Amino acid sequence: MSDLRIEGLSVTIDHPQRPLAVLRDVSLEVPAGASVALVGESGAGKSMTAYAIIRLFPTDAARITSGHVWYGDVDLAALPEEALRAYRGARIAIIFQEPSAALNPVMTVGEQVMEGIEIHHGRKGARERALEALRLVGLDPSVFKRYPHHLSGGQRQRVLIASAIAPGPSLLIADEPTSGLDVTIQAQILDLISRLQRDLRMSLLLITHSLGLVAQRTAFTYVMRRGAIVEGAPTERLFRFPQHPYTQALLRMATRL
Ligand SMILES: Nc1ncnc2c1ncn2[C@@H]1O[C@H](COP(=O)(O)OP(=O)(O)OP(=O)(O)O)[C@@H](O)[C@H]1O
Ligand SMILES: [Mg+2]
Question: Has residue 65 got a pLDDT over 60?
Fold first, then answer.
């Protein structure tokens, strides 16, 4: 298991007129085995932070301009693309924000969960491993042969979680893992992720725009606004003694909902 330690990370998106600073001097830490939240309004740079960790940006115009992404004693930000590939999916898994876009409509559930396992561990035992992952996320083995459109939104999200955990990552990054789901299903999925994080001894970086969702689910919370971290504190303390006016505003919104 390894700590994740982001230090002074800045990311810029090149534009014809002038570059856009989407991450500005971001520092945050996810200790090994811990669960940490990253919270902030839409456009704050939460997803960019997740993409920057494994350098999988949604646009070619994005680049890291300074800073470090320490994973144990390896600086992922300084690794060549080739070497970074060994980390993506295998040791660091991301559940992306758009569940429907992340699943391939012409592949069965079993094929998709096995794909990541085969890339990192080979074909041998991949089927058993995939079935075990489906069991861990509470899906019936019969979904193995089904296609994504046969499943409900909540089941599809469980498939994505199964794909993420199947290769055995030590760090799970969940980017808005419940967006687009019904409120009751949201709670089930978040509880599932928390349970897996503890049972499989992973570290978790949980990204969400809603402070209300992270209460009682994460040990530490960072608040992000306009590409910068404005505050970070143990979650309980952040709720009781928010220091930054922006955190206070987010809290007022969370309690009003
Ligand atoms: N594909 C892209 N091309 C250009 N700019 C982008 C792209 N994706 C994001 N950005 C810019 O990066 C900034 C940060 O976006 P990011 O997606 O990280 O926000 P977020 O905090 O994840 O928001 P949300 O809660 O809506 O998911 C935004 O200002 C946006 O303009
Ligand atoms: Mg996002």
Answer: yes
In short, whether 13's Cβ falls inside 6 Å of ligand 1 is yes
pTM of the entire predicted model: 0.95
CA distance 46 to 227: 8
Q: Is 120 part of a structural domain of the chain? A: no
Q: For residue 150, is it within any domain?
A: no
Q: Whose C-alpha lies nearest to ligand 1, atom 30?
A: 43
- State whether the beta carbon of 119 lies less than 6 angstroms from ligand 1: no
Domain range spanning residue 210? 4-91+169-256
Which mutation among 10, 17, 42 tests ligand 1's pocket best, with the greatest number of atoms within 8 A of CB?
A: 42
Distance from the alpha carbon of residue 42 to the mean position of ligand 2, in angstroms: 7
- Residue at 8 is within a domain: yes
* CATH number of the domain where residue 57 is located: 3.40.50.300
Total tally of structural domains belonging to the chain = 1
- Lowest-confidence pick of 40-49, 208-217, 240-249: 208-217
For range 93-97, the mean pLDDT:
88
Over residues 113-131, the mean pLDDT reads 93
Question: Does 181 score more than 70 pLDDT?
Answer: yes
40 lines ligand 1 (CB under 6 A): yes
